Amino acid sequence: xxxxxxxxxxxxxxxxxxxxxxxxxxxxxxxxxxxxxxxxxxxxxxxxxxxxxxxxxxxxxxxxxxxxxxxxxxxxxxxxxxxxxxxxxxxxxxxxxxxxxxxxxxxxxxxxxxxxxxxxxxxxxxxxxxxxxxxxxxxxxxxxxxxxxxxxxxxxxxxxxxxxxxxxxxxxxxxxxxxxxxxxxxxxxxxxxxxxxxxxxxxxxxxxxxxxxxxxxxxxxxxxxxxxxxxxxxxxxxxxxxxxxxxxxxxxxxxxxxxxxxxxxxxxxxxxxxxxxxxxxxxxxxxxxxxxxxxxxxxxxxxxxxxxxxxxxxxxxxxxxxxxxxxxxxxxxxxxxxxxxxxxxxxxxxxxxxxxxxxxxxxxxxxxxxxxxxxxxxxxxxxxx
Length: 385
Prior knowledge:
By secondary structure, the chain is of the alpha+beta class. 44% of the residues lie in helices and 18% in strands. The protein folds into two domains: 4-188, no CATH class; 231-382, no CATH class. The strands form three sheets. A six-stranded mixed beta barrel has the order 1-2-8-3-7-6. It has a two-stranded antiparallel ribbon with strand order 4-5. A two-stranded antiparallel ribbon has the order 9-10. Strand 1 (4-19) and strand 2 form a beta hairpin.
């Protein structure tokens, strides 16, 4: 069964981005992409600003010129990360104010390296090329949006001498890429077996290729995107674990609070318990009344808490903007937490576990008072003042 839906090559390198208006020079990570292939494999298109308004206005693979300047030179297009320093400003409401106009010219400088990591040309090590900034990208991951620019794959490949090259001894060096992004079909689970299948297919294919000069073909790894972004994901996961621990401690306090309240209820209802026992109610039935009472309180409380919590999480970024506007208090620093918004996705399984835990905690809190009520002597209970 074919498991791959689509694939696209990608080149990563570091370089300098120079813009004259506004006058900025930034160190950036440059990503060479085939725009159509990248849009098919990833959700890159959802974060593009001008592309979503007019897809035909954004092109990277062929030189273009400003529509209103017929005498301007034709240049390849470039997409920049919206959070790169000096290119935009995000106001307290979360709205971006862009400083870069469409078709602003810029220059990219890179240093081509050999396969072994040495400088390709010691005389003129840096290669520079002009581009038009045709769009901006917002992936909502701050580290990416503050550092990455995107150019056409073939253009960057030629700048880095990663296209097919002829050596002085008439040998051919095949064209190279950094990674291949793969999208599997929707029905295919992304698990270890899928990775093994793709890895096996690659090594079967690479056996027929010339790998006499290096071992690059044999050192290829097949990984999930989570593996490459593990530092970003682990930071959020650690925050989540810390919050679970804190709420766990609060839940323990809540159990003792329920115990104290139910204990007082048992004391107040001593004569009523005696009456129930005197007309034939068993100890198990008395205990069941208080345990069911605790379960109902836990159920109603967890449902109300879930509704309020879901509403709060869904609008948590709006609440943060309100805190910024009113008190100047920013809870979520994008530079610290990597993401430019507070993650607000609600996992149904987590909600289910919390509801069950709340009900169980309420029943546990009511357990000791229920046992005390069940063990009451009906005669002494009726005498209670």
